[in-house]
Design brief:
Blueprint: H1 2-40, H2 47-53, H3 59-73, H4 92-95, H5 98-106, H6 108-113, H7 117-125, H8 138-150, H9 152-155, H10 162-168, H11 171-215, H12 220-227, H13 232-237, H14 239-263, H15 280-286, H16 291-294, H17 309-316, H18 324-335, H19 355-361, H20 366-370, H21 387-396, H22 405-417, H23 432-435
Helix pairs in contact: 1-11, 3-8, 17-18
The chain binds heme C (6 copies).
One heme C binds at residues 274, 278, 280, 283-284, 289, 291, 293-295, 306-307, 341, 343-345, 366, 370, 373-374, 379.
C-alpha cells in the first residue's frame, strides 16, 4: 500500500514531466508547421498550391472559364463560399455530379420542374429565386466548373498587407493553415486533459492518505512516508530532472538560433516607413500611372531606378500643392537634395540580378516578383529574394522562344534529349556563373 502511494507521488511528478514534454513537442511541431505556411505563401506565383489545384486543367481552359464566370455568374455567385444572390460555388463539383451541373446551369428551371430532388432542394433553400438559363456548350460549362474548382477565383481577393498577401494567395495553403489550426486545438485539449489528470491524481492521493491515517495501524516509518510533504527541493536535487531541464533548454536554444541563422539576410515582408507618405495604391492603382513612368529604367537596364523629385514635380507642381506631404517634395527640390527613400529590396553584392532580362526579355510581370504593388499604400518586400527562390522559378518557367531564331537550334537539341519544357534552367539559368560573378 505504502509503495503504491509512493508510486502515486512519482506518477504525479511524471505526469507533469510527460505533459511538459508532450506539449513542448506538439508546440514545436505547430510552430514549424506555421513557419512552413509562411515560406510557402510567397513562392513566386505561389506555384505549388496553385499548380496542384489546377493541375488537371489546361490554363487556356481556366482562362476561358474565368472570363465566362466573370461575365455571366459573378453578379450572383462568388467563387468562394460567400453567398451573394446564389450560393458560393466553392466545392460545388463535390456537392453535385457533372451531368447534374450541366443540366442545372443550362436550364435550372426545367430541372426544378422535372421534380429532381436536388434541384428542388436548392431552389427552395434560396427562396425560389429562379437562376437564369444559359445557352452554353458542354465545354463552356466545364471550363467554368474547372475555373471554380481551381480555386483561382478565391485567391483573387485583394490582399490587405504582408499577412494578407500570404494568407490570400491560394487554397492549397489554406489547407496547410488548417492543419496548423487543428494542431493548436489538439494542443489545448491535451493540456486540459493533463491538468484534469493531475488534479484527479492529487485528489486520489489525498483520499488515500486520509484513509491510511485513519484506518490503518502504521508503524513509525510508514507513517512518516505517508505524511511526508511534497518536497520541492527533492525535485531540484534529482539528477534526472536536472538533465532533462538542461536538455530542453539546449533544444529550445538550438531551435531559436537555427531559425535566426536561416533567416539572416532574408527580409521578406520588410516594410519600412518612408520619408514621404507616397502611396503606390493612389498612383499605380487608382490613377493607373505606369510603373515605368517612375521606374524609368526597369525595361532597359539592370536597375529599376527610384524616381527623382523632378518626376514627382511633373504632376505635383499642380496637384495637391497644399498637402504637407507634397511640400516635402518642394523642400527637397529647393535644397537640391534627393528624397531619402528607404531601400526595401536588397540583394547581397555577390548576386547579379538584371531587371530588363526579366521584364523586357522574359516578359515577367512586376507583380510576379513584387506582389500587388498597385494595392500597397506602403511597399513591402513580397518575395524572399533567396537563391532558392530565383532557381525555383528558373526551373519552372518555360522560355519564350517563339519567333526568336537564336533559340531554334537550342530548342531542337533540347527536344532531342529531354521531354520537359525548354525552361530558363534548360538554357543554363541555374549555372552559378549566371548569377555570381
Ligand atoms: C441572377 C442571379 C444568378 C446568376 C446570373 C447565376 N446564378 Fe447560379 N444560382 C442563383 C440562385 C439564386 C441559385 C440558388 C438556386 C435557386 O434559387 O435557383 C443558384 C444556384 C446555382 C448552383 C447550385 C449551387 C449549389 O450549391 O447547389 C450552381 C451550380 C449555379 N448556380 C451555377 C451558376 C453558374 C455557373 C452561373 C453562370 C454561368 C450562374 N449560376 C449564374 C442565381 C444566379
Ligand atoms: C508615381 C511614381 C511611381 C509609380 C507610378 C510606381 N512607383 Fe514604385 N516607387 C516609387 C517611389 C517614389 C518609390 C520609393 C518609395 C517607396 O518605397 O514607396 C517606389 C518604390 C518601389 C519599390 C520598392 C523599391 C525598393 O526600395 O526596394 C518597388 C518594388 C516598386 N516601387 C514597384 C513598382 C511597381 C511594380 C509599379 C507599377 C505597378 C510602381 N512601382 C509604380 C514611385 C512609383
Ligand atoms: C502622373 C502624375 C503624378 C506623379 C508623377 C506623381 N503623383 Fe503623387 N499624386 C498624383 C495624384 C493624381 C494624386 C491624388 C491626388 C488626390 O488625392 O486628389 C497624388 C497624390 C499624392 C500624395 C498624397 C497627397 C495627399 O496629401 O493626399 C502624395 C504624398 C504623393 N502623391 C507623392 C508623390 C511623390 C513623392 C511622387 C514622386 C515620386 C509623386 N507623387 C508623383 C499624381 C502624381
Ligand atoms: C524576376 C523578378 C522581378 C521582376 C519581374 C521585377 N523585379 Fe523589381 N526587383 C527584383 C529584385 C530581385 C530586386 C532587388 C535587386 C537588387 O537588390 O539588386 C528588385 C528591385 C526593384 C526595385 C528597387 C530598385 C532596384 O532596382 O534595385 C524597384 C523600384 C523595382 N524592383 C521595380 C520593379 C518594377 C517596376 C518591375 C516591373 C516592370 C519589376 N521590378 C519587376 C525582382 C524583380
Ligand atoms: C518569376 C520567375 C523568375 C524569378 C523569380 C527569377 N528569374 Fe531570373 N529569369 C527568369 C526568366 C523567365 C529568364 C529568361 C529570360 C529570357 O532570357 O528570356 C531569367 C533569366 C535570368 C538570367 C539570365 C540567364 C541566362 O541564361 O542568360 C539571370 C542571370 C537571372 N535570371 C537571374 C535571376 C536572379 C539572380 C534571380 C533572383 C534574385 C532571378 N533571376 C529570379 C525568371 C525568373
Ligand atoms: C538564378 C540565380 C542563382 C544561381 C544560378 C546561383 N545562385 Fe547562389 N545566390 C543567388 C542569390 C540571389 C543569392 C543571395 C540570396 C541569398 O543569400 O539567399 C545567392 C547566394 C549564394 C551564396 C551565399 C549564401 C549566403 O547565405 O550568403 C552562395 C555560397 C551561393 N549563392 C553559391 C552558389 C553556387 C555554388 C551556385 C551554383 C551551383 C549558385 N549559387 C547558383 C542566386 C543564384
Amino acid at each position: 500500500m505504502i509503495s503504491c502511494i509512493l508510486k502515486t507521488k512519482h506518477n504525479i511528478f511524471f505526469a507533469f514531466l510527460l505533459s511538459f514534454i508532450v506539449s513542448f513537442g506538439a508546440f514545436a511541431q505547430g510552430a514549424s508547421e506555421q513557419a512552413e505556411v509562411a515560406t510557402r505563401g510567397v513562392e513566386p506565383g505561389a506555384t505549388e498550391g496553385a499548380s496542384e489545384a489546377g493541375a488537371a486543367a489546361d490554363p487556356a481552359v481556366l482562362d476561358a472559364g474565368e472570363a465566362l464566370f466573370k461575365n455571366n455568374c459573378a453578379a450572383c455567385h462568388s467563387a468562394g463560399s460567400d453567398v451573394v444572390v446564389g450560393p458560393g460555388l466553392q466545392g460545388v463539383t463535390e456537392r453535385h455530379d457533372e451531368a447534374w451541373l450541366l443540366r442545372w446551369i443550362k436550364n435550372s428551371q426545367s430541372l426544378v420542374q422535372s421534380g429532381d430532388a436536388e434541384a428542388v432542394a436548392v431552389y427552395n433553400e434560396y427562396n425560389k429565386q429562379a437562376m437564369p438559363s444559359f445557352a452554353f456548350s458542354d465545354d463552356e460549362v466545364k471550363s467554368i466548373l474547372a475555373f471554380i474548382e481551381s480555386g483561382q477565383g478565391v485567391a483573387q481577393a485583394p490582399a490587405a498587407g504582408p499577412e494578407g498577401a500570404v494568407a490570400g494567395e491560394n487554397v492549397g495553403q489554406d489547407a496547410v493553415g488548417a492543419v496548423g489550426g487543428y494542431l493548436d486545438i489538439i494542443l489545448v485539449v491535451l493540456i486540459i486533459v493533463l491538468i484534469v489528470l493531475v488534479v484527479t491524481l492529487l485528489l486520489i492521493s489525498s483520499v488515500l492518505k486520509n484513509y491510511l491515517n485513519k484506518n490503518r495501524q502504521l508503524d513509525a516509518y510508514d507513517a512518516e512516508i505517508v505524511n511526508q510533504r511534497f518536497d520541492l527541493s527533492k525535485i531540484y536535487k534529482s539528477k534526472a530532472v536536472r538533465t532533462l531541464v538542461v536538455l530542453i533548454f539546449v533544444v529550445v536554444l538550438l531551435d531559436l538560433s537555427l531559425d535566426k541563422v536561416m533567416g539572416v539576410g532574408i527580409q521578406q515582408g520588410y516594410q519600412p516607413r518612408q520619408p514621404i507618405a507616397f502611396s503606390h495604391k493612389i498612383h499605380a492603382g487608382d490613377n493607373q500611372i505606369n510603373c515605368n513612368y517612375c521606374h524609368t529604367t526597369v525595361y532597359k537596364s539592370r536597375s529599376a531606378s527610384i524616381p527623382s523629385a523632378n518626376i514627382c514635380m511633373n504632376c505635383h507642381s499642380q496637384i495637391k500643392t497644399e498637402s504637407p506631404e507634397i511640400q516635402k517634395i518642394y523642400r527637397a527640390v529647393e535644397r537640391n537634395r534627393p528624397i531619402e527613400w528607404v531601400r526595401i529590396h536588397n540583394l547581397p553584392d555577390l548576386a547579379y540580378f538584371n531587371h530588363s532580362q526579366h521584364t523586357q526579355v522574359g516578359g515577367i510581370e512586376c507583380q510576379t516578383c513584387h506582389g500587388p504593388i498597385q494595392e500597397m499604400d506602403v511597399v513591402y518586400q513580397y518575395s524572399p529574394l533567396t537563391m532558392g527562390w530565383c532557381i525555383n522559378c528558373h526551373r519552372e518557367t518555360p522560355l519564350n522562344t517563339e519567333g526568336n531564331a537564336y533559340y531554334d537550334n537550342l530548342v531542337k537539341l533540347h527536344e532531342a534529349s529531354s521531354k520537359g519544357a525548354f525552361t530558363v534552367a534548360s538554357n543554363g539559368g541555374t549555372e552559378c556563373s549566371k548569377c555570381h560573378y
